[in-house]
Specification:
disordered N terminus; elongated
């Protein structure tokens, strides 16, 4: 999961047009989701504004802890927009119910994330949400998650959906299967939080229910 230091709010959304060569790729999984052009436009404009703002403030030498995994301002200036995907999540109370089905519980959060690329290398994510009726880029960062998502997507052909279980601090890709039964690729956060490091690459949703429930209960209890 990304740290607070890995997020920079987009303070200059209206600055600049898209950087040269920036492109928009298809979402990971688009079934049932009508993609609005404004989402991609907001990501493009947000990335361009973020680049312009930081080049003006720092120039070539970027500060330690910069949220995108780039070497310097020259690499920052060459970034382009890559894959975009909606973020799905689950209701924690429904997850704790006896008949919980992970795929069936997945619902869109209204948030989209786009991979920022340096050449073909993922260097971070641009988060886009609707604010006061307009799609806007609201955060930049999560470099490790960007790499993890792209690697997992490359390793699993077919349609996928990105799932974040917030209360369990765990991310997954739901992968469509030829037999019609989706399975889940646990990303780094889920493998660490749920102790799944030695588990197969793809898991049945039923096998994830109890580990997720335990993590959700523990995290919910810590806020009481």
């Amino acid at each position: 999961m990304q740290s607070k230091s890995a997020i920079i709010l987009a303070a200059a959304l209206g600055l600049a047009a898209i950087t040269a060569g920036a492109v928009f790729a298809q979402p990971l999984f688009a079934s049932g989701v009508v993609q609005e052009r404004g989402i991609a436009d907001a990501a493009r404009q947000g990335l361009a504004g973020f680049v312009k703002q930081n080049l003006a403030e720092y120039g070539v030498r970027l500060p330690d802890g910069f949220p995108l995994s780039v070497a310097d301002g020259r690499e920052l200036a060459s970034l382009r927009l890559g894959r975009g995907f909606p973020v799905f999540s689950v209701n924690p109370q429904r997850l704790l119910a006896a008949d919980a089905d992970l795929s069936g519980l997945m619902a869109p959060t209204g948030s989209w994330r786009f991979v920022a690329l340096s050449g073909s290398r993922p260097v971070g994510l641009v988060t886009v949400e609707k604010v006061e009726g307009r799609w806007q880029a609201i955060a930049f960062g999560a470099a490790e998650l960007a790499k993890n998502v792209e690697a997992a997507q490359a390793g699993h052909a077919g349609q996928t959906r990105f799932l974040r279980v917030y209360q369990a601090q765990s991310d997954f890709l739901e992968v469509a299967q030829a037999d019609g039964k989706p399975r889940f690729a646990a990303l780094m956060s889920a493998r660490e939080t749920l102790s799944l490091k030695k588990q197969p690459a793809l898991l049945d949703g039923a096998d994830l229910i109890e580990p997720l429930r335990a993590a959700v209960r523990a995290n919910l209890a810590s806020f009481r």
